[in-house]
Amino acid sequence: MTEERRGPRERMVFSAAQLIRRDGVAATGMREVAAHAGAPRGSLQHYFPGGKEQLVNEAVGWAGRYAGARIARFVSGLDAPSPSALFAAMAGQWTREYAADGFAAGCPVAAATVDRASACTSTREAAAAAFAAWRDPLAEALTGMGVPGSRAGALATLMISTLEGAIILARAEADAGPLHTVVSELGPLLDSAVVPPG
Amino acid sequence: MTEERRGPRERMVFSAAQLIRRDGVAATGMREVAAHAGAPRGSLQHYFPGGKEQLVNEAVGWAGRYAGARIARFVSGLDAPSPSALFAAMAGQWTREYAADGFAAGCPVAAATVDRASACTSTREAAAAAFAAWRDPLAEALTGMGVPGSRAGALATLMISTLEGAIILARAEADAGPLHTVVSELGPLLDSAVVPPG
DNA sequence: CCGCTACTATGACCACTGTCATAACCGGTT
DNA sequence: AACCGGTTATGACAGTGGTCATAGTAGCGG
């Protein structure tokens, strides 16, 4: 997960996303980001002349692209592709992280939205773009599984909404129960949207 | 919504919840809470000797009790009680607010979780209690509609998760679309859990 | 009047934030 | 050697945060 080969700029964006998803935007300091990335403090104003707002927005964008890229890998990793299996894989990433590292962190896009949506228009738009970068590949994957194009987008929105909410509940309860619950409860609905290929 | 009859202490808790759900915990200042509540600044340390942590926790608890109490009112307001209608009513409260006042605010419990879950154990526990105070009446309402007790809790968790996530997506997109989407997509699943009274 | 309690008022403190100004370094090219 | 753009290094600034200390007021029973 932590590639050391990347340049300091990309490391700072990555570190910002990590810290934001753990502590929120306001509680994450610029100096803290540089320290976490092992980057010099002076590089902050060099790479991010737009200040914290730019750094946060890039971290949110990175997270959205990351989530979108994960979809294809989840799909290819399924032995029996189905919407419910894909959703289970998406949630499984979180249950594994929570089992391994504790319930310290959530989704950085959600954190940015909660913290900055009403105060910073550019960050809100970055969050919207990140969710779109996540939803579109997801909807495409659903259509590839036989979900009609007219419903794929709506189901993708439903899946992301439910997952984001379950992440919050799981963190609050310090228990992965909500993640397991939504996977098992939502699965049948997702699979029922698949139109038989016949 | 803004009762002026309540004492300064309760007004400050209420104002804290309002500001938290708009700006997040870290970006909400104590002085700002007092000013918003029209309460003297000196009252903060008098009513909340535990400092910001206590104020935030009480605001979260208040929000949880508020959400739980709303459930009964939603149920009694439905002309044809059904799980999907209840869920639509819950989401409708948000779509109405967003249509009337813009997408400025989200759920204070979610904001507290995102901002403080990893930094403040007591706040995380307060959030968990708030979600429980919301989920339990919801599950009870579902059983009253014919949902088996074994599934009511899981469906309540699913409904809250999905609603919380849809709120975040709606704020990010500044569009109530996700709220409408999850209501229409989740409705059939919710109603299919009702066991016919026969 | 006193004493007591509940509440309010205000100023100070220290830690910390994001941002900026400025200077140094460092690997090349000329 | 000089020069240069791309980086890094530091220190300072102004603002804000939560918190504390201290003093003040209001009301009331005695």
Q: How would you characterize the overall build of this protein?
A:
- Two copies of one chain form a homodimer.
- In chain A, helix 4 runs parallel beside helix 7.
- Chain A contains nine helices and no strands.
- The first copy, chain A, has 198 residues and is mainly α.
- Chain A is elongated and about 60 Å long.
- Chain A has a single domain, classed as Tetracycline Repressor, domain 2.
- Chains A and B meet through helix 6, helix 7, helix 8 and helix 9 of A and helix 6, helix 7, helix 8 and helix 9 of B.
- The first copy, chain A, binds a DNA duplex (30 and 30 nucleotides) through helix 3.
Short description:
2 copies of one chain form a homodimer. By secondary structure, chain A is mainly α. Chain A is built from 9 helices and no strands.
Secondary structure topology:
The structure is a homodimer of 198-residue chains.
Chain A: H1 8-23, H2 30-37, H3 42-47, H4 51-77, H5 83-101, H6 108-116, H7 121-144, H8 149-173, H9 177-192
Helix pairs in contact in A: 1-2, 1-4, 1-6, 4-7, 5-9, 6-7, 7-8, 8-9
The first copy, chain A, binds a DNA duplex (30 and 30 nucleotides) through residues 8, 29-31, 39-47, 51-52.
Question: What descriptors fit this protein?
Answer:
homodimer, about 200 residues, mainly alpha, Tetracycline Repressor, domain 2, about 75% helix, elongated, DNA-binding, HTH_TetR (chains A, B), transcription regulation (chains A, B), transcription (chains A, B)
